[in-house]
Amino acid sequence: MASSKQFEPASGTRDFLAAEYEKREHAFATIRGVFARYGLQPLQTPAFERLDVLAGKYGDEGDKLIFKILRRGEHEASGEADLALRYDLTVPLARAVAAYGSQLPTPYKRYTIAPVWRADRPGKGRFREFVQCDLDIVGSSSPLCDAEIVLALHDALDSLGVPEFRFLLNSRQVLFGLLEAYDVPAELGSGVLITLDKLDKLSPEAVVAELVAGRGLAADVAQGLVDDLTAPDAAERIREGLKASETGQTGLAEVDRLLALTKDTIPAARIAFTPNLVRGLDYYTGIIFEVVAPGVPGSIASGGRYDGLIGRLGGKDSPACGGSLGIERILPLLDQGAEADYAQIDVAVTVMDEDLAAESFRLADRVRQAGIRTGVYLGSSRKFASQMKWASGQGARFCLIYGAAEHADGAVTVRDMVSGEQTRVAFDEAAADIARRFAPAG
Amino acid sequence: MASSKQFEPASGTRDFLAAEYEKREHAFATIRGVFARYGLQPLQTPAFERLDVLAGKYGDEGDKLIFKILRRGEHEASGEADLALRYDLTVPLARAVAAYGSQLPTPYKRYTIAPVWRADRPGKGRFREFVQCDLDIVGSSSPLCDAEIVLALHDALDSLGVPEFRFLLNSRQVLFGLLEAYDVPAELGSGVLITLDKLDKLSPEAVVAELVAGRGLAADVAQGLVDDLTAPDAAERIREGLKASETGQTGLAEVDRLLALTKDTIPAARIAFTPNLVRGLDYYTGIIFEVVAPGVPGSIASGGRYDGLIGRLGGKDSPACGGSLGIERILPLLDQGAEADYAQIDVAVTVMDEDLAAESFRLADRVRQAGIRTGVYLGSSRKFASQMKWASGQGARFCLIYGAAEHADGAVTVRDMVSGEQTRVAFDEAAADIARRFAPAG
User: Which of these, B259, B34, B294, lies nearest to B164 by C-alpha position?
Assistant: First the structure.
């Protein structure tokens, strides 16, 4: 016989029943609403792309995690793939910009909230099908665009009700300047940055050790760099240190410009220059940022400017910046309370007599026309108690009872499912009566 | 160099830019709203299933159209598949019913609006990724459930504004009774039904010819059956003929019961007993229906009762009925007008001076808080004419102009982009002023 495992969704994927589905959709709708108010345009691309569009875009490690689709028909036996499931939303964006560039406004401001698929080892909070939520502005190098990305993300997190989040802000130019100002040999630069990125996870001592042993950096340089980056007054020390580097000055100016552009809209406590923020991905070219929240490991949003990427991914070479909400990490933060009582319907309608069922359907239809979720009893019992049990089980606030007695009088009994109180109203008045009961007071 | 084909989505799939996306989402939201008002619950399952869940469920022809996903890592070289993209929404429903049966209400009323993938040859209106829109009630054999499916579909089509649609209604029992009453040998039955299903595409003569030559039916039986089914008074003739069959009488009672249950809600002209409706799929066991609309080949919705299917698909054996909206066929019917002018934003905010940009962002933020889509000029030009050109191009109804003169006065200039009329308001009043201009009159 069937084991229960047989009916589970495939490893790393999830089914969403009504309550969970509604909670997720509510969050997505909130984000869509915010992004639309910024004039960001939705873009939807297919679940799969031709394999050559995706292959080679995510590095060796990423490539291994792509779900590839077998060729079909006579070609199936070849064991070859020609299509692959979307791995992120950025490569499809680059393809769309290349395909529709002339039809798109400049700059092109778009958002996409959609699932992506990665053959990662499934684990706690790590899925093979998960939703990404990206916004990007392609075709402009204006710092106003970086500011708008940060503002839109701030607005979205605020609207979702995420508590106590903070933007950590830096620039890749600050990091390059840092390497210069602290006399890190150019050839060690990118390795040093990868190690410095671990300052939020490892102790300063461990990072110094890795810089020296793993990256070949001189011990005094490593110690000086880590000391300054982890000091309580790190931002001031780094500002001072960067005076020695022109690149560093350019980067600081980017950071300060973004702080100035957002100062009237984002509270100062929610955004700060954070010189030890590196961001692992080497495609960033200017501003970079992450958003952190207490009790959440890693970031709940991130992004930056990536001027060369769209061209590298196949699109026309265009300046671009963007950000992403880690929505699967954010959803658990919003858990409290919302889910507890998922009511399936607001109003229940009985069927006390087979021959009156058509009129019960008509009654339900009228209540639905007032926008109220209404269920007709579909079971076979004609007992009052069974139907009341069903109505409470469904979470109905009111029940419309329509039996032989009501039919004879052209009436309906309205039962308050909380108080048990029953009132009779005329059949033709029942929908309006119910609508009034649900109307906001005042 | 890149050919333009290189940037197209994979064969048979589509990208949706903003205007098209919004039109589709608007229709989906309408349908979701209707289904929710019936107390139907959303169910979301993953894009892919284990291959063994899907294989063998769609017949030989269907199996060939399944997109299979190659195994990964060391197993990739085997050329074998272990996962496959969802081919329809019914098999995942059966799996979910098996997995979560005890957590689900009885009957379980669910809807799903989601893409499915089929490796069909792409053609006009035929895609490899397309959205299905299903509703089903699992766990009850009550005729009230069949009626509710029909009512919910009727309501959805009505709410979408589909013009002049009609339900064609029949029962598989009527068809089995027909075979009995017209003395069709039992062993020819299912072949005869498959041929009779072509009466809406082929001439009566062609159908008779196929019944005789292809199905081995006696010529007089074939002629009598087709004559009665295509007569102007077919419904009456068949009702008369079915008096000879108990099964036929049961089927007629199912049809009449559904007509009676929906008579108070669905106008009589929109639903009719249609004895030559067969529905190709042999898993239907009771009521069957299709919805047709003038000018649309085939049906725009369909469904019926399929009591054995959930068990056959892997779930617990349960009575069930359901329906499906052919949403990809319906969307073009709703085309007229809606798409013409897709405005990207409602309000534009200028940036006349770099140093005033932070305040332009603050202004935009306040207007957005009133729920109005607002864009800040992100380009590099500081010329008034360029920014006005941008504002009209974006479809903005009003533009907020904030330059040095306005800054000095603590004011903002509001420009009506249609009339060109300009008014000055205090900076702190601008958002409220704009909100008033968008508020419904009266």
Answer: B294
Q: Chain B window 350-409: which residues touch A at a Cβ cutoff of 8 Å?
A: 351, 357-359, 361-362, 365, 368, 371-380, 393-394
CA dihedral of A248, A253, A256, A258, whole degrees rounded to 10: -110
Residues A105, A89: Cα–Cα separation, whole Å: 19
Considering the domain B14-333 in this protein, what is its CATH number? 3.30.930.10
- Assess whether pLDDT exceeds 90 at residue B289: yes
The answer, for A3 touching chain B at a CB cutoff of 8 Å, is: no
> How many residues are there in chain B?
442
Dihedral, CA atoms, A113, A115, A118, A121, nearest 10 degrees?
A: 110
Tokens 């998960």 belong to residue: A130
Q: Does A39 touch chain B (CB under 8 A)?
A: yes
DSSP state for residue A67 in the 8-state scheme: P
Please, which residues bridge with residue A111 across strands? A42, A135
Given this structure, which CATH class describes domain A347-438? alpha beta
pLDDT in tens, A217-252: 999 999 999 999 999 999 999 999 999 899 999 999
Residues in chain A: 442
ipTM: 0.91
- Taking only the tens place, the pLDDT of each residue in A80-108 is 999 999 999 999 999 999 999 888 988 99
Cross-strand bridge partners of residue B109: B137
Which residues in A lie closer than 8 A to residue B315 (C-beta atoms)? 7
CATH topology of domain A16-333: BirA Bifunctional Protein; domain 2 (3.30.930)
Which part of chain B has CATH 3.30.930.10?
A: 14-333
pTM over 0.90: yes
Which pLDDT belongs to residue B1?
39
The β-bridge partners of A130 are A116
> Hey, what are A27's tokens?
């969050």
Strands A411-416 and B68-70: what pairing?
unpaired
* Six token digits for residue B277: 């409706």
Q: Are A378 and B140 in contact (CB under 8 A)?
A: yes
Locate CATH 3.30.930.10 in chain A. Answer: 16-333
What are the residue ranges of CATH 3.40.50.800 in chain B?
347-438
Distance CA B102, CA B122 (A): 41
Nearest to B265 among A47, A100, A365 (CB): A365
Q: Tokens for B83?
A: 């996962």
